[in-house]
Design a protein that fits this description.
globular; Jelly Rolls; 7-stranded antiparallel β-sheet; 13% helix; alpha+beta; 3-stranded antiparallel β-sheet; 10 strands
């Protein structure tokens, strides 16, 4: 038991650690159709050796649409300045990307975002008729004896792997702490250092899969 990794626990609190706004985009039908009509996807797992699932495409939102997202994030977090870290060699930045993932392409993958690239992350749900259970979940560690551990990657660590001292843990090592349901045109914003994941994926046909727009900011 002494070798089992530990994390600090911080119960996710609405308005402090995560934020939710429904009916977010005024032109959501247009944005959703535009994303589903994309034909310039980059493929992820299980189609390639990428660690992220499904497929992604840049510029999910147009510049004017993105300004509205930035303004809302600044307002609710009281951030004086938001910025997006530029891509580094060998590593892309997936800010303002459309992501499409089906139920046979992935499942939940609890993780934190890389500290030097992300203080806040967000998703906008863009599937018109989603599975509500396939939203965004926050997780905490479950120890082998059944006791519950933490969920926060401390400031001294770059990411969850460094905090845990292992490259990964099995999914059974995590327990869902809380979930925000998937609802069309809902935005969910959260701290990138809290352990989180898509709750689930759905759909087998292209037009039925889970579509989101993803965002990552420093502040």
């Amino acid at each position: 038991m002494s070798s089992w990794p530990t994390l600090t626990y911080r119960r996710p609190k609405l308005g402090r650690d995560y934020w939710v706004q429904d009916d977010f985009l005024p032109n959501v039908d247009e944005v959703s159709r535009r994303c589903y009509d994309r034909d310039d996807w980059e493929l992820g797992a299980p189609h390639t050796k990428q660690v992220w699932p499904g497929r992604r495409a840049a510029q999910a939102l147009a510049p004017d649409e993105l300004k509205g997202v930035d303004a809302w994030v600044s307002k609710v977090t009281n951030a004086r300045r938001l910025w997006v870290e530029p891509p580094t060699e060998g590593r892309a930045n997936y800010h303002n990307y459309a992501q499409l993932v089906g139920m046979n392409e992935s499942g939940p993958r609890p993780h934190t975002d890389l500290r030097r690239e992300c203080r806040y992350a967000a998703v906008i749900y863009l599937t018109p008729k989603p599975d509500p259970k396939a939203g965004t979940s926050f997780y905490r560690l479950r120890c082998p004896d059944g006791t519950l551990g933490g969920n926060l990657c401390g400031p001294q660590h770059a990411d969850l792997s460094e905090a845990l001292g292992v490259s990964s843990l099995p999914f059974a090592a995590w327990v869902e702490d809380m979930r925000v349901d998937n609802r069309f045109n809902r935005i969910v914003l959260y701290r990138g250092d809290l352990v989180h994941s898509a709750s689930a994926y759905f759909g087998l046909d292209y037009s039925d899969k889970r579509m989101t727009a993803t965002f990552f900011w420093m502040a």
